[in-house]
Amino acid sequence: MRKHSRGERRRRLLHRSGVLSVLLAAVGNGWAASDSAPPRSEGVYLDEMPVVLNVSRLRQPVDEAPAAVTVIDRQMIKDSGAWDLSEVFRLVPGMYVAYHAARFYSTDSIVSYHGLMSETMSHRMQVLVDGRSIYSPLYGGVIWSDVPVAMDDIDRIEVIRGPNAASFGANSFTGVINIITRHSAEEQGKFVSLSAGSGRDEATARYGGKYGDFTYRISASLRNDPGEASTIDNPDLRGTPRDLYGWQYNKFDDKKVRLLTFRGDYQVNPADSLELQFGYNGGPRQAGEVESVVAPNKTADNHFEQIHWRRALEQGGELSVQFYHSVESSQAALVNTDPVDIAKNGVDAGNGDVIGRRYDLEIQHTFSPSASTRLVWGGSTRYDKVYAPSDLLLDSSQMYQDRSYRLSRLFGNLEWRARPSLVFNVGAMAEHNSYTGTDVTPRAAVNWHFLPGQTLRVSRSLATRTPSIYEKSVEEYYRTYGGYPSLPAQVPERVDAREIGYLGKLAGVDVDFRVFHEVYTDLIADRTDALAHGNLNSGSATIKGFETQLKWAIGLRTHLIYGLSHGVVASPNVDRIPYTNSVPTNNQSLMLSHRFDSRWSTSLVGYQTSETHFSNTDVNIPQGRGYFIDSSRRWDGRLAYAFRSGEGKGELALMVQNLGDAQYFEFRHDNQLPGRTAWLNLKLEY
Amino acid sequence: MARPFATLLKRPASSGKLGALLLGVWLLAAAPWAWGAGHVALVLSEEGGAYAEVADKIRMALTQKTQPAPRFSLLSLEAFGEKLRAPASLDADVVVAIGSAAAQAAATNPRVPVLSVLVPKAAFERVAAARGRADPARFSAVYLDQPIARQLQLVRAVLPGRLRLGVLASAQSGTALAQLRTATRDGRFKLAVEKIDRQEEIVPALNRLLHDNDVLFSFPDPLIYNRYTVQDILLTTYRYRVPVIGFSPSYVKAGALAAVYSTPAQIGQQVAEILYPLLQDPGRGLPAPQFPKYFSVSVNYQVARSLGIEIEDEAALHGQLGPQVEP
Lengths: 686, 327
Known about the structure:
The complex is a heterodimer of chains A (686) and B (327).
Chain A: H1 6-27, H2 43-46, E1 68-73, H3 74-80, E2 95-99, E3 109-113, E4 125-129, E5 132-133, E6 154-161, H4 165-168, E7 175-181, E8 189-197, E9 201-211, E10 214-225, E11 255-267, E12 272-284, E13 287-290, E14 293-295, E15 299-312, E16 318-331, E17 333-336, H5 339-345, E18 348-351, E19 354-367, E20 373-387, E21 403-419, E22 422-433, E23 437-451, E24 454-465, H6 469-480, E25 493-506, E26 509-523, H7 528-533, E27 539-553, E28 558-570, E29 586-595, E30 600-609, E31 612-613, E32 628-629, E33 632-645, E34 648-657, E35 677-685
Parallel strand pairs in A: 4-7
Antiparallel strand pairs in A: 1-6, 2-3, 4-5, 6-7, 8-9, 8-35, 9-10, 10-11, 11-12, 12-15, 13-14, 14-17, 15-16, 16-19, 17-18, 19-20, 20-21, 21-22, 22-23, 23-24, 24-25, 25-26, 26-27, 27-28, 28-29, 29-30, 30-33, 31-32, 33-34, 34-35
Chain B: H1 5-9, H2 13-34, E1 39-44, H3 49-65, E2 71-76, H4 77-85, E3 94-98, H5 100-106, E4 114-119, H6 121-130, E5 139-143, H7 148-158, E6 164-169, H8 176-183, E7 190-195, H9 202-209, E8 215-217, H10 230-239, E9 244-246, H11 249-254, E10 258-261, H12 264-280, E11 296-299, H13 301-306, H14 314-321
Parallel strand pairs in B: 1-2, 1-3, 3-4, 4-5, 6-7, 6-8, 8-9, 9-10
Antiparallel strand pairs in B: 10-11
């Protein structure tokens, strides 16, 4: 039996040799004098080193990935001039991003790959931060303002365009957003960032330090965001009578974000490392109107704790164990604003508190069974618990009880490099959950590098999405209390996605192109019609289309990134859920960045979204009319000046969003975005 | 073939002790018959690990080659110190000083020829200068470092066309920087050098270097390349997607792209080849200090793939580096 770890033994050894040289020097006969050479100058060759670039830090090249991937790196985030994290996803082909202030619980942005907005929240994606699933246990979507991550700490974001449960787990349904923060060793020293401008005030500070094998960083920030302007200038009613649209004024969407995050990385010995994280995101968040109910004094209180142990194995293998606990909570007293209703029920519209908790343990093992294969496999178990008296559909007898959800899964992916130019990936996830039982979702892909630097990828992936705790509460409520005793239990939503992709360099331009065909079935219908038909899984849709992403280094200093997506939805639109056109037919994004010299740089970013059918934000949903949000176009710009001061460096940048002051709407066609918005940002690092 | 250092170092210390014990027993048993065939004193800077590995290889290779086998004494630094205080008790024909501390200790004794191994060139030269040992026939070395030219050959082999080398240097770089400048004088490579004084300057220096360079070319500077800085260096270079050419297998395992190095067994083999004629003819002097003759190439293929670099297998690379490199 080994009594001591290798690192410990080495330390003891070093210690002993240290003692030895002291001893020898004390003997004083001169030959051990340490002035002529360091006693262990060979140590630089012989010492063991910790495995730094381990499996989890190494990026898979996009042309070897079994799915379409868009990588957004720090430079892109910076150049995009994004104010809110959700905005950077506008650069991803096929991603629909809309800021809104509608639901009283999630006054926030929608980030949805391939749309399918049957709900007002995009709940069909897996979203991870450093391996931690951050979609809300309540609705299944992400409240982007509540994520405890500072934008300046993000290393990169990988967006997997398409389902990929085998690699990313539950809810990897239409796509996956994988946010990776920087290692604390990369953020040593002091950092300050200050922003001020129209509705854009923020102060961020970070300190990164080191104690021997332990590095850490602490980031804190305060943000004041008054949201949209308080009046709507130009509601586009398309000839519809004004009284059909409830919103005369813009929403209660002021928010203050107080953020504190900590990350510590401890290199236990050359093979083992421990990553510790915790984060807090809280502060006042107003929540806007739904059916005359608002929450002007809502406060958020989110936090998480995470521990991740990794052991580097031979031949680049890794064993990893991760546990996290996250709490998403908010307190809100709901206020009634409808005079008629106030007369009847009073101003108090109930308790809008929400407390969602998640506990998750995951074990993953990566190794190479043979020279040409690599296997990643593991398992995880999760427990979600939600307290939400007003948001869940509950009988008054159950209102103040917790609702829970359990999930266990096994997953694996085998990568086989049959030839240097031919890579097969076969993977699957087996999932068992407390709502819909057991499911197996496989994925297979082949990447063929038919010429050097030219790759063809063919893949097929199946995935499921289980009902959220909210959706489950709807089903159970209607079965037990709502007059539908024979309502069957919901089954998971399913997708069968196929694609053919090309990656390569054509005339100096990096091209990522793919055509896709996605068949969605058993989509959960949040409508009374579905109850009447006795099937809450009545929805189905097929999306066909193509996406392309181009990166062109026009010169050493000029870069162009362009994205285009085209998708057409075919759906029977059962139960008056109009999936057809719920994905914008064409989306474009463009980012042109240029470095004039070592000091001055600029970027210009443009987005265009074609008109979108967004039924669920119609004020009178049951009418099921053709409800479109107009196409929109917007330009953002950034001009930055970098400088050095003594040991440190800094950058002063001017950001302008909506350069052309375009009046346009997102999410709902009276949800008007602010016009031209400008702010200054100063970053100092030393 | 060659096992990397890292795996050798994993040998539990107890097996090193056991080995030393067995060797002692074996020496006692063999001594009466080996008398007269020469006596090699092996001085270990530290017990176990690479030091013991070199000693084992020397003993094995010489035992196989010479008949009768020479006598070996395996000495710790303390034991060697004892002997130096009573010089008469040191009856060896040659001392192999394994590691810098052993080299430093052995330098004080001009009576017996000393061959230093597992010692970097810079460290050996400092010891020789400090002790005034300018007699290579009696005080010589097999360096631990590779000749710069061999490292440059590795860059050419794994990263053809990448010609802009970024280099970090400090006061502890020794003569490596000067050697590199000499070796790249032909203009095939372009050098960009950032000099630093403190470890905290590494990341800012890398930020300046990596924008415009294709490779971070490293040499064994203990201030810059140690286990406390490896994270900063490898994470920063990876962020810039610039590969690192290392100098040890453990740096490659940590995340450098590739390295050329010599294993303890390879060094031991070379030492045995140097000692063999010397033991046959005790009057013969030691050859001049030399670089390792045998070497291995190690590549981190995971890092290579992630950086989109295609690299041949290690054996093919080794072939490309060729055996002949001028010191």
